[in-house]
Input
Amino acid sequence: MKYIFILVSFCFIYTAKSQSFSSEQTAAVNFIKRVYSASPFEGVKKIEGDEGIYHAVAVSMMNIPKDSVLAYVSMAKVKAQDLAEQGFAEPCVKFEMVNRMDSRNQSTYLFMCTTLTQFITDFLKRKTTDGARIISAPGNKYMAAFITLENTKYSDEVMRDKAAFMKAKQYVNTLVNGSTISSEQILRTDEGDASTAVTNTEIIKEQAMGFIQGLELLLVKELFPSKTTYVYYSKL
Output
């Protein structure tokens, strides 16, 4: 199980790091550059554009030798993530340098960052799947579980929410601890007339080898017709 855990984690971590800006994001990058040029800032900033809200981070590194400016990009990314965690409402997991400004005694790195919500949403739209993954950012790692449920299978939102949380625990526990949670779909009918309504009941049984702490709800949204997607996460 340990080796499987490492292999699965590596595959998803590699995917997260290997992505780059698409052609649609080029305009956003240029927009962020123009905003910064017009009004330079240090730290985090939400920038509202025609296509949405962008998250930007500017990091200054003092007294960098001219021949080492590029080598400091990874250090600047880690610092940018620390600033993003303090300044934004949720973690940012992908940082792309969009510009670098050099002066006599410092270099300022301007990053466009992708929030955890946007990163997972883009991933699910490319590959609809349920499960748990480890997402690696420059300075931190996060555990994320995502579940998509059909709305018609649940009588109300409360039951669907409970089922989603139990399934999230199942995926995370299975990945980390090797535990399992089984579910049974039972059709129940009351005694009496044949026209009595049929109710669909889901029974979920948990057999856990460990306990997952700090699993927080990140997203509840209908990404697909007649289905609700839940995303839970915790910091590792």
